[in-house]
Each structure stands twice: as C-alpha cells, then as structure tokens.
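User: Could you check the structure of this?
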Amino acid sequence: MISNLLFDKSRSKKITSAFSSASTPTTPTAELEAYAPLVSPGSYCIVFDTIIEDLPGDLFPDRPWGPGNNPKTAVWQFLESHDGFEVDKRIHDKLLITVAPDGYLKRVE
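Assistant: Sure, the predicted structure tokens are below.
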C-alpha cells in the first residue's frame, strides 16, 4: 500500500499532507485516515474543497456533493475522533481567497 511506503520513507522528516479529491466525504475521510499519521507535529493536513459546505445547495444541482456531504463534512468527522489535530483558523484568516475554509488541520501532538 502506498501509505506504508510513505511511512517507511518519511521517518524523521517533517511532513505536511495536502489533498484534493472527490468532493463527497468518503474519499477525504479515507485520505485523512491514511495520511494524517504521517504528518509531523506542528505541520498540517490540508483538505481542499471544504468551501462546498458554504455554497448554496442548489448551485450545482447535478453534483453528488453539497452542504452536509462534502470534504468539510469529512474534516468534522475526522476531528471528532482525532484529538491530535485542530483547525488552524489563523491560516484561513490570512488568506484573501481560499477553497479550503476550515481545511487547514494542524497536528498539535
């Protein structure tokens, strides 16, 4: 599995993980579970497309994602069971434009 190879290669290195995938929560949840353990304390998992939660539900009616069913949903589910990460609002607040509000997850332990 790719994550096992990455674990072997990443020992004693500073790691940040960023991903953008299918915009339903299933894929980002699987990616967070697989790659978050690689992230070094003080570094980040960055989940893109969390903006979907904040868009009107009827903006893209032909899509399988929308409010309540998107990468931000995956972030919320992940944070419920992973105390070692928290949303870093400072990053979001510094950016003028982002597709990842609440998607900057800092590893705090």
